[in-house]
Amino acid sequence: MASVSKRYPVRARDFLHAGEASIQIQAFLKAMGLDAGLIRRIAICSYEAEMNAVIHGGDGELEMTLADEWVTLEVRDAGPGIADIELAMQPGYSTADETAREMGFGAGMGLPNMKANADELRLESAPGRGTRALMVFRREAAGGGAP
Amino acid sequence: MKVAELCETLGWKALAGARGLDREVRGGYCGDLLSDVMAKAPPGCLWLTVQGHLNIVAVALLREMAGIVITSGREPDADTVRRAEEEGIPLFTSPASAFTLAGRLWELGVGRTGAA
Ligand SMILES: Nc1ncnc2c1ncn2[C@@H]1O[C@H](COP(=O)(O)OP(=O)(O)OP(=O)(O)O)[C@@H](O)[C@H]1O
Ligand SMILES: [Mg+2]
């Protein structure tokens, strides 16, 4: 197998569909027989990145690629971008508005969760230029389950 | 213990997800901050929360939870009930606080090492 990619649209402020792309990715990876622990880590990252695009970012796309040795997640949005990435990565830092906080978002833990659960996280962003979060997961550490 | 037994014993009101009632409950988690729950709730747990909006169903699915109990007399949104039903996620309400419910669940053996 070379690789399989799946792409899902993500819409800014669309709380009715937020999370659905992540649920579909999880279902796909289960059907492909990936290790349960690996799927859990991917689900955390996918959800947090998707929600960040919905809450703080703009319209965009979530793309998952399954290859023999890797799974990658890439979430791109055309939102306002992040001025200070180092600050955004700090646990507890959040600019979530009142509406999002009332819903239980805004703990400032999404990016730290992504960093803790991905084997590699690259966050590219600049004010006015949108945000791109790329996460890589090694499959071999999880052992077996190859499709 | 199974979701249905706990619901019955603790007198929760079942709103959705009847087809998930025979799931085994393997732990519990209390939390209203979604990224905390997403990071820490154990698979197969019952989640006690005051959040009632649609996104809790996504969190429950992604964390492979046994079910959700909305505590302190709060009511979920209609969308949440509909989605939980579609996905087969047991969804309950209780007038009791998360503290009280967690205590009762603990007494019943949920979340204590090994077999819950
Ligand atoms: N896609 C994005 N576009 C613009 N800003 C972002 C984006 N993702 C993150 N940020 C900024 O980084 C901050 C920290 O993000 P993080 O996910 O860690 O916390 P949060 O989303 O505020 O809260 P939580 O994830 O715990 O609900 C956000 O509050 C926001 O200011
Ligand atoms: Mg976040």
Short description:
The complex is a heterodimer of chains A (147) and B (116). Chain A has 147 residues and is of the alpha+beta class.
Radius of gyration of chain A, CA atoms, in whole angstroms: 15 Å
Question: In the CATH classification, which architecture of chain A applies?
Answer: 2-Layer Sandwich
Order of helices and strands of chain A: EHHEEHHHEE
Low-confidence stretches of chain B: none
Question: How many β strands of chain B by DSSP?
Answer: 5
Total helical segments of chain A: 5
Largest interface: A-B, 25 and 21 residues
Strand-pairing-aware structural class of chain B:
alpha/beta
The helix-strand sequence of chain B is: HEEHEHEHEH
Say which CATH homologous superfamily of chain A is assigned: Histidine kinase-like ATPase, C-terminal domain
Distance between the termini of chain A: 8 Å
On the 0 to 100 scale, the average pLDDT of chain A is 95
Molecular shape of chain A: globular
Q: CATH superfamily of chain B, please?
A: HprK N-terminal domain-like
CATH C-level class of chain A is Alpha Beta
Question: Low-confidence stretches of chain A at least 5 residues in length (pLDDT < 50)?
Answer: 142-147
Descriptive notes:
The complex is a heterodimer of chains A (147) and B (116). Chain A is built from five helices and five strands, in the order E-H-H-E-E-H-H-H-E-E. With 147 residues, chain A is of the alpha+beta class. Chain A has one domain (3-138): 2-Layer Sandwich (Heat Shock Protein 90), CATH 3.30.565. In chain A, strands 1-2-3-5-4 form a five-stranded antiparallel beta sheet, covered by helices on one side. Residues 142-147 of chain A have low confidence and may be disordered. A five-stranded mixed beta sheet of chain B has the order 1-5-4-3-2, sandwiched between helices. In chain B, helix 3 (55-62) runs parallel beside helix 4. The A-B interface holds A 15-16, 18-20, 22-23, 26, 40, 43-44, 47-48, 51, 103-110, 113, 116-117 and B 32-36, 38-39, 43, 49, 51, 53-55, 57-59, 61-64, 79. Residues 48, 51-52, 110 of chain A line the site of magnesium ion. Magnesium ion (MG) is lined by residues 48, 51-52, 110 of chain A.
